[in-house]
Amino acid sequence: MARRNFYALALLGCLAATLPLKLAAQESLGDAARRIRSRKEDAPSSTSKTGNKAPGQAQPASVADRNADLNATMTLVSERDEAAYSTRVRTQLEQERFRVLEDVAAAERTGKTRFAGGGWKLYTLYSALQSPKGKASATETEWTDLLDRLKRWQAQQPDSITARVALAYAYLHYAWQLRGDGSIPLTADGKRIFDERAKLAEAELNQSFELPAKCPEWYYVMLQTARARGWEAADLTTLFQRAIEFEPQFYYYNLELALSLTPRWRGKEGDTERFAEESANRVGGKAGDILYWQIAQSILGNRELGNAPPQFTWSRALLGYKNLVEQYKGTLLLENQLAQMAARFGDYMVTDETMAQIGERWDQSTWGTREYFDKVKTWASGSAVPFRKIVEAYKAVNANMQTPEGRSYDGVIAREFSTRYTRAVKECAAVASGPTPTLLVLQMAKSGAVQQMMVVPDNASDACLRPKLEKAAFSPPPKGEYWVRVALAAKP
């Protein structure tokens, strides 16, 4: 299916791959300013007397307009807050300052610039243009206004790769809106409209591929379009290979193919996890682990895919997260994603620690609802606090055992417990309905009374044994609040 024009594109992709762009890893603001200024076209110093322009044509810019465009461009290029950047991009589109968007996109492409957390600014720029005012759902009027603006941009600058990719992306999201969160079944008419809009996206991308300028976002939008259009697996794989040859660092390609390989789309159980492992191994090193985290998080954090048990390797994903923060710095969004991921894997310690850092700054795009966020927070705290108490108690026990008086008292407690409570331990083990304790960690008062009692494993039942020890009295320890451990006999 849908092989239409693909092999021609694949051939062009091969040619593009043999001529890789030799771009700087990062462009300074000064370099960007000089390059942007050099691209400014000479224009009259004043606007036309009528102030009118022909349909589809840009009006000549005055010196003041050009300076305003340059200032707006430099403001966007220097913006480091992702939300503010998206808002500014949408404002430029609403004001139809297409030259600003052109220059900003060129700067972000050349510099391969990223926000804290590792996200590409170029990706965020297109994301801000893909739907009306950044909303997941919009009215028909809002969609018409957006598409008309993008068409005017394309008409004014027919050689713009940015305008065409942005228009294709908008067509595609216009189609996706029909599906809602994926739970809305499409009617026959809905399927027809969805396919028409997806075809418009594909047509724009096919035409723009022949433009002299190239953009890594082109492949990303085409991969999404291929999923929407139901391309055959071989064609999809070929397109993905061309994409990573063109720009290996644009990790969004991997996220899109991973989604395509889920059972929800064209894959089967385990395909996405194998792809993540293979992709991360191919990249290798810290970058490979970062990619593994990015793929795993994109799948497990996708609420449209449900809550299937995670089959990714949590230790590698966590390592990738730590490497990502080390290289690109952490963000509040990443912290929210880490807490949600740790919860999916049942790691209540990491979840609780991260939740403490987040506080009340929960991210709706990650959690969906405040109710879910609070539920996970309560679970993590309820699980982690007892565990931390046991860990701290173990540390105290080990510290006490490093001293001569501690080792001596350990022997005293072992003998006294064995003499007085061996029978009670056996009786409680015999009637226990669940796991029975194998170890007790006791905090002794200066008088020898039991102040606290913890059982290991922490899910063991102590309902029978605890009442028997609450009034126990042992020999006084070397000092008050003294921690000891007592090994219990196995269940007969």
Quick structural overview:
This protein is mainly alpha-helical and 492 residues long. It has 21 helices and three strands.
Description:
- The protein has 492 residues and is mostly helical.
- The chain has a domain at 403-487.
- 62% of the residues lie in helices and 4% in strands.
- It is built from 21 helices and three strands.
- It has a three-stranded antiparallel beta sheet with strand order 2-1-3.
- A hairpin with a 5-residue loop joins strand 1 (439-444) and strand 2.
- Helix 7 (140-156) runs antiparallel to helix 8 (161-176), helix 12 (252-260) packs across helix 14 and helix 16 runs antiparallel to helix 17 (348-358).
- The protein is elongated and about 95 Å long.
